[in-house]
Structure prediction request, 635 residues.
Amino acid sequence: MSVSLPRLHLAGFSLREAPGWVVSLGIHAVALIALLAFKIHADAREEASILSAMQDIESEQFLESTADDAVGTSETVTSLTSAGSASAAVGSNSAEQVQQEVQQKVDQEFKSPDVKLVDDVGQPSEGELTGSVDLPGGSVENMAQGNGGVEGAIDRLAWEITQSLRQGKTTVIWLFDQSLSLKERRDTIADRFENVYRQLESLDQGGEGALQTAVATYGEKFTLLTDKPVDNVKSVIPKVRSIPDDPSGKENVFAAVNTLVTRFRSERAKKRNVMIFIITDEKGDDAEAYLEETIKNCRRTGIKVYTVGNAALFGREKGYVKWKYPDGSVDDEPVDAGPETVEPEALALGFWGGANTEHLTRMSSGYGPYGLTRLCKETGGLFFIAHEEAREKFSPAVMRTYQPDYRPIRDYQASLQKNKAKMGLVMSAKQTKIESVPLPRLGFRAYNDNIFREEMTEAQKPAAELTHKIGLIVDVLGQGEKDRDKISEPRWRAAYDLAAGRALAIKVRALGYNQMLADMKGQPKNFQKKDSNEWRITPSKTINAGQAVKKLERQATMYLQRVMDEHPDTPWARLAERELAIPMGWEWQEGNNASYFPANTTPDEARRQIRLAEEQARQTTPKRPTAPPKERPKL
Prediction:
């Protein structure tokens, strides 16, 4: 059967009459054009898909169905066993390359001379910006160590607002803590406001009404300073400056955020992004009552929460702020600013022997207080550390690996039930928080034999209490030892090993101390110098309390050395180093203490001189009105 070709005439030319090679060439040309068109279409679709995936990552939408009440970061994210970003799983190498190129373009536009920030505060690197939430530990940015402070944090918030405006119209809500200690920070932000908003307006993102602002305050009560979001921030600045101090000392921040979510959920219905910026220096007093509910409500409505606050001191409930009194004196006043974890995970034990160790009670955790930090992380925001009132600080890059567990509290508690080492650590830490563990004295008056024996008898009482309490802690931690190797998180491993090492070290010292007192009472030593009037127990490498105690000393050293080897440049290693720096044995040393009576002073003579000194003090001390004690502020 023959097939007749249709006639095609072009300017008198017939395809049927053309040579075969011309026909072949035309067919191949048509095929190539078709393939090229298909490739262009496929590339466009691929680029659109990549850019769409990027936007999903950068915007980090947390909008969920109201039927989905589950909140919390999955265990795989919190475990910190991988330093990779969640976004690394999206797209191929080409997708990552496109993301970098687009981000560089965004950075260049934001850093252009027209929108340069005051004081030339540099923007974070591309890696910090794109990974600020995805990466483990990325829910916190330390502005204090970068010398950015409050100003740097506000400029960084401006960048966050810019990114939000690129996605759509945005409503920003500033929520200010009214506590007395925050007056200076509120004024600093008011100074920064006008300049930051002027820069944002110069970007001309989203058109008229794209950026709107509301302001609220919290303390014991919640107050909304703007009836509705405003376009002109100039009307807001005077309200920020005139925020009254709340002398109640209460900070109900989570209830305040809940109220804002209720008031401004209609903004989300208008397809506007909503961002809440909390400005504070404390942790808030109502986390137990409102934290979980607040997280759930924010996630349901897709509202992000950011905080500009202070770093929590490592393992401590209290932080400190500088407070200037009317007389001009300045003190470090305690405030509720921690801890960085939901439960205590460090033993509250002092250091026995050696130099002053107060600075070790004021180490920075590198994280904000648990409740606020978790709220920011769960909602896709950030906690900016604007200030660290700490004696020792650690690299944010190092501490990033030791992120606290930010899963819901019910999941945290469940993880304790599954691992006896974790449970033993938390139980022991709570016990040392509830009941203080005494550290007995090391110096004894010995200007006569009777007073020295009385001193040792009295010293044995707290020593017996110490031995009992530390023995219980060692037993509880020991019950979890078999689960220690099942722990994968670096933070928990460091915390357990440090607790076990410190508890064992103190037990070794307690047992040796008791033995030293018993031996001295049984066979008193004689002074070698005639003017000696004091015996002191001082640290020694010699363990003279038996083989069982020597074995405990080796175990303590193993735990503490492991902390130093596996977790260098961390608070755990710093504490382990200090514990190991002081030998666990004891020895007696005689000395002359100028504040004691001279050697060989009889008890009767000592009592007579005491009465005489008291009488002279009454006669010679001028009668002056007693100065009233300083009234501590409720911060």
Summary: The longest strand covers residues 170-177. Confidence is low (pLDDT under 50) at residues 1-17, 42-103, 105-137. Residues 298 and 379 are 6 Å apart (CA to CA). DSSP finds 18 helices and 14 strands in the chain.
